[in-house]
Protein: Chemotaxis protein methyltransferase
Amino acid sequence: MAITDPEYTDADFQRVRGIAKDVAGIFLPESKRTLVYSRVARRVRENAKASFRDYLDFVQGPAGQVELEKLICALTTNVTSFFREKNHFTHLEEEVMPALSSRARAGGRVRLWSAACSTGPEPWSMAMSIMSVFPEAPTYDVRILATDINSNVVAQAASGLYPEAETEGISLDMRNRFMEPAGQGQLRFAGPICGLPAFRVLNLNAEWPMKGLFSAILCRNVVIYFDEVTRERLWRRLADKLEPGGFLYVGHSERVVSLRECGLEQVAPTIYRKGG
Ligand SMILES: C[S@@+](CC[C@H](N)C(=O)[O-])C[C@H]1O[C@@H](n2cnc3c(N)ncnc32)[C@H](O)[C@@H]1O
Structure:
């Protein structure tokens, strides 16, 4: 049977936009019309539907919950890399970890959060930074929460397995120290470092189950997909999750506008500190 292109109308695009916004807070501008087609057409075909309309009726129908999650995954953009925006990791090592390691050694609790972790280079880079200045961290109450709305990338992140070519941002010294060959040109995180990150699926624009506060939150290159209202609401919620003196790191093209409302002060172009 010939594979035909599923029918895709403006009304279908508007429906996908509505779903992305309502479920994930993701704003899809008009310029994404073709991208949406190419990403969602595959889901339409996999579900053996002839048109976007039939597919979206199914997604929004009583049996559509699982497919709705797959649709959201298909609409996310997961570009990432190890030690992306290196200055954040230098700041973490030099300005943040000295006090946190003293606290941990004294029996205190230390929590950091990679709030849109994608396939994992961000939380694994945080773990390597922490261990480079505090090698015994995994033996203390130090943990990195790593979350993303996309369950596929969270599973990949949790595996700690990467093609060697993707690990270029990691120094040779760190690769030798924290990773082992896993066959077929792949490397895998191994040893005590694996005790630091915990991976979970979490929608930043839904309820959060976490009760405690964080010393540092990396929420980078995700609010670029949200509209301004969603963005500012998220900054406030993240600021509420920081302990006094804690740090929020945002992407290079992102900015917290409502500093006073969030109780944050800017300490570098993309680094904010919670007051108190
Ligand atoms: C471009 S990646 C950024 C990854 C990493 N933070 C970095 O800077 O390299 C954006 C990530 O945000 C996630 N994302 C999009 N909307 C989300 C939401 N509502 N809640 C949680 N994660 C979301 C996507 O699944 C994707 O993995």
